[in-house]
């Protein structure tokens, strides 16, 4: 990966890291404050669900603003809105107000994710997308870990300190985006990408995003419950969850680098199989805390690597002008998977016991392996190349006559082919393979990119060469 590409990715990754520190413990602060205020679990659940409802709403609507005003201004708008909603929660301590503010905050947060993902996808090609998305996930998870460490510090300060710190971090995250970039992606022509077309274009990417949402949400919501029921104290549960996130961070970049060098669909198959094997090991191996920690480390690396590889696979197949809407669609699919994961998997735990969580992980992994394998088997076969045949060297005039006679002979042998004898009076030079892209296709431009120069007009052939060519014609 070049230094220029890393420099271009620095601003969005740094902004995401700063914003993610605050978001990493905001949900915990809200839950603790509502519980301390004596609110019922139903109220706490509704306020928490407002954030995910906002995520889904934003994943359907935020592309319009991004395409209208560009990446940098869109990021500033979304991050500022996150800061405002957080600070208002410190001023108004009513559940209905927090529900509304969390709804708006979720809408703005997914806008930030959309800006970052589309920026990184537009910055690099298929050779580096896996590593760029791995850095994106590493920044997000590292910020979440630091945020949890800040929770105790800000809550010990008392008052509304936690909300103030989170709001300040959201505001500060705008600075890297506003000051660092020399260039930023600018999509000149956005192509429409309906949900049906997204599924048709990349069913593997859609299913990978959905499966990632199912498993990641289960890790965050149901894995602590499993650990608690195995008899671990609260501090040990926190350490085990930290091990999961650590595995996600440390294995992201190797998996992303591997996916850049191999078929991403094959990588997705292997990730699904890996998650299935780890789940089976948790179910059938005799476990003590050291073995469990090692298996959870590997499980975190596999589960959390699924989404970036699926997005990279989808981006390899999407037109350049559809990258923003593709990212939006995959974020929506991932949010849907996250929303239905707890109500879908928790009954399995009720039916099969606490170990039902890993039975569910294994079942999802087997399904993904089967689906990815099926999609890989039905890929369109490459267009066959015509067999090589030797030809006799001849002059340009002779080649022109030979090609024309061949077309005429083919037309006479096949009555359904119209006569082409007069359609190609002379052989023209093919269009160059370099130069500005056609006007009807999307192009990723940059703010400081010089406008494309007009193609130079073809020079007329020398007079003596033209005379020789005319003399050779019948």
Protein described:
The protein has a two-stranded antiparallel sheet. It is 74% helix and 1% strand. With 474 residues, the protein is mainly alpha-helical. Residues 381-408, 410-421 and 423-474 have low confidence and may be disordered. The protein has 3 domains: 1-187, Growth Hormone, Chain: A; 188-378, MFS general substrate transporter like domains (Growth Hormone, Chain: A, Up-down Bundle), CATH 1.20.1250; 396-426 and 441-472, no CATH class. The protein has helices spanning 3-36, 41-69, 71-91, 95-123, 129-157, 161-172, 174-179, 195-201, 203-221, 223-229, 234-261, 264-284, 289-303, 306-317, 323-352, 356-377, 396-413, 463-472; strands spanning 185-187, 444-446. It is built from 18 helices and 2 strands. It comes from Halomonas aestuarii. InterPro entries: MFS (IPR011701), MFS_dom (IPR020846), MFS_trans_sf (IPR036259), MFS_YcaD-like (IPR047200). Residues 8-377 form the Major facilitator superfamily (MFS) profile domain.
Number of strands: 2
In DSSP terms (H or I, runs of 4 or more residues), the helix count works out at 18
The largest beta-sheet arranges its strands as 1-2
Summarize the main sheet: 2 strands, antiparallel
Task: Find the structural class using helix and strand composition.
Answer: mainly alpha
Number of domains: 3
Low-confidence stretches: 381-408, 410-421, 423-474
- The topology string of helices and strands comes to HHHHHHHEHHHHHHHHHHEH
Please state the second-level CATH architecture of the largest domain.
Up-down Bundle
The gyration radius over C-alpha positions equals 28 Å
Distance between the termini: 58 Å
CATH superfamily of the largest domain: MFS general substrate transporter like domains
Strand content range: under 5%
Helix percentage? over 70%
* Topology-level CATH name of the largest domain: Growth Hormone, Chain: A
